[in-house]
Design a protein that fits this description.
binds flavin mononucleotide, Rossmann fold, binds iron/sulfur cluster, alpha/beta, four-stranded mixed sheet, Glutaredoxin, 43% helix, six-stranded mixed sheet
Length: 561
């Protein structure tokens, strides 16, 4: 059980007054060249942490120092949810309210908090997911996770807020983040030897590493399942001498928390995977893009990174920089993440060119998920044949599944690729499961008679995140939660997604209202047509898949409830 680092815990009234000398010093402590235009977003993030806001005078000051226009800074502040231009309340309570927290009763706690704190200096909000769905109900208080909320202690929490108690005085157990793994496997339990895989990669050289990765058959574990060796080779082949490795630690899919585990417990292996990738493609710089909700992990990751630097183990001329996201789910999409790393709004860009050809700052860039990099380290340390010992021919190896919802043991389970859903359900104690949502909101909805479906890249049940629901759950409620999520997270850049996600929610509401069979059939047809339109015309993966929960509902849910 890891506890949040309490140095980060401060109430918002502890923030200092705006002071340009302090601001400059803070930014310089963070980065030697904080006023370069591409640092604009990170500078705003740091100022937000230091002063609790990024007010218009602060934006004007940063504009004068960095040469970025005030208009551009304002557009960053309006895009990223965690950047706030107004003075902060003393407490900011953000409850996670994805479908898992909802079935665990979060709505009741939110209502109670709102009623009790209506006249307190506290803003009570909800947010889709904070990467803690393995805890029954979780929230962020002033950006820090609070994981032990329930009907009995919510009053106690409200009283602490009303009394203006500093977070330091709150019961520490409330902040404990469990990182229990219920079913370890090869990736999470082998005898890891720090730096051994990287040493081998350096010794054997680029082509050997690429061939070795090819032989392993590793496929990206961030969602798309793209072969890692192909991605690395494309980047390696580019003539440009400047290349980058990026680690996508934006884990924002509702119900997913596996990357949090790796970043906390197997941090060395994430770093080593990035350094191995750097050898494979010839990169000299890496960026780890961490979702803003995982702010509390920054100190830990930085400390581990510093150990690598001090031991001179990162590899010749290679270094890694950690950058923080600021509350935009779309920034998990690789091109949006690269935009965000370059200090811009996280608007996805068109492909081709692919990041391997033209990525961060226009340079060839590898984008890999946290778990993919952990698997790369495993492959270098244990061998590609060892990796292939489990899994299927086309989806070799194993992966961690984040399991949440109606089961006795929510948490993390490492299983070979291709293991059937029913094996996972037996392990997590979900005998009453009626259906599971596998692979996130836009993944597959599998009913009981489909529980033999394998969890691998060839099947609809890809896994990674598995939400379990028993017969008491309304499939309409689940679907509605997902479609609202997509509406909220649409970046608004293209019309099919911006307007389509809104229209889809209206249609879904209409579908549930008492109406004639003919009208219902028409609404159903409209929803299918809209899903297809969004699939074909949206700019990025978010909009393309945002209608899939509705298709799942129509194909699997409606009529089966
Ligand atoms: C809306 C959206 C959100 C995404 N979020 C993440 C994420 O949080 N983490 C991640 O690794 N990949 C995410 N992806 C997939 C990435 O675009 C990309 O495929 C992945 O980072 C590549 O790494 P991999 O090859 O190691 O899987 C997302 C994709 C979309 C369309
Ligand atoms: S599909 Fe949605 S998230 Fe993607 S670019 Fe268009 S509006 Fe933004």
């Amino acid at each position: 059980m890891a506890e949040s680092p309490f140095e980060w815990l401060r109430a918002k009234s502890d923030f200092p007054e705006w002071d340009t000398d302090l601001a400059e010093q803070t930014l310089l402590n963070q980065h030697p060249a904080p006023f370069r235009p591409e640092r604009a977003l990170q500078s705003l993030v740091v100022l937000q942490q230091q002063f609790g806001q990024v007010s218009p005078p602060m934006q004007t000051w940063l504009a004068s120092k960095s040469g970025v226009t005030v208009a551009d800074l304002r557009s960053l502040v309006s895009f990223y949810q965690f950047l706030e231009p107004t003075p902060p309340p003393r407490y900011h309570l953000r409850f996670a309210n994805n479908i898992i927290e909802q079935i665990n009763g979060v709505n009741h706690l939110v209502e109670q908090a709102r009623a009790t704190l209506h006249d307190a200096d506290c803003k009570v909000e909800t947010t889709s997911c904070i990467g803690l769905s393995d805890h029954p109900i979780a929230a962020l208080i002033n950006g820090h996770p609070i994981t032990r909320l329930n009907r009995s202690n919510i009053n106690e929490l409200c009283q602490l807020i009303r009394a203006g108690k500093s977070l330091q005085e709150w019961p520490r157990r409330w902040f404990a983040v469990d990182n229990t793994i219920h079913h370890p496997g090869p990736l999470t339990s082998y005898p890891y030897a720090r730096g051994q895989g990287l040493a081998l990669a350096t010794q054997q050289g680029q082509q050997w590493v690429l061939n070795h990765m090819d032989a392993s058959g590793l496929r990206g574990l961030g969602g798309a399942g793209f072969p890692t060796a192909v991605k690395w080779r494309l980047c390696a082949e580019q003539a440009d001498p400047v290349k980058y490795i990026t680690c996508n630690a934006d884990e924002g899919e509702p119900g997913t928390f596996k990357d949090r585990f790796y970043l906390t417990v197997q941090t060395d292996q994430v770093i080593e995977g990035m350094a191995i990738a750097a050898v494979a493609v010839g990169a000299s710089k890496g960026y780890l893009y961490l979702r803003g909700e995982y702010l509390y992990l920054v100190k830990h990751i930085e400390a581990v990174l510093q150990q690598w630097r001090e031991r001179g183990q990162l590899g010749a001329g290679f270094d890694i920089e950690l950058q923080l996201g600021a509350g935009a789910y779309v920034c998990g999409e690789e091109s949006a993440m690269l935009e965000s790393l370059a200090g811009k709004r996280g608007i996805p860009t068109s492909k081709p060119p692919f990041p391997g050809q033209k990525g961060l700052f226009g340079k060839p860039t590898v984008v890999n998920n946290v778990e993919t990099l952990v698997a790369a380290t495993y492959i270098l340390q244990q061998g590609s044949s060892a990796f292939r010992l489990v899994g299927t021919e086309h989806s070799p190896g194993s992966r961690l599944h984040s399991v949440s919802g109606d089961c006795r043991r929510p948490g993390l389970y490492e299983l070979p690729q291709g293991a059937p859903v029913q094996d996972l359900l037996a392990l997590c104690g979900a005998e009453d499961a009626h259906c599971v949502q596998s692979g996130g909101p836009s993944g597959a909805l599998l009913l009981r008679h489909q529980f033999q479906t394998p969890l691998d890249f060839e099947s609809p049940g890809r896994g990674g995140s598995v939400m379990v629901f028993n017969r008491d759950r309304s499939l309409w409620d689940i679907t509605r939660n997902f479609t609202r999520f997509f509406q909220h997270e649409s970046c608004g850049f293209c019309t099919p997604c911006r307007a389509g996600t809104v229209a889809m929610n209206h249609l879904l509401d209409r579908y549930e209202q008492p109406t004639t069979a003919r009208q219902k059939a028409q609404t159903r047809a409209d929803m299918i047509e809209l899903t297809q339109l969004m699939q074909h015309t949206s700019h990025c993966g978010l909009g393309k898949t945002a209608g899939l929960p509705v298709l799942n509902f129509l194909n699997q849910g409606a009529g089966h409830e």
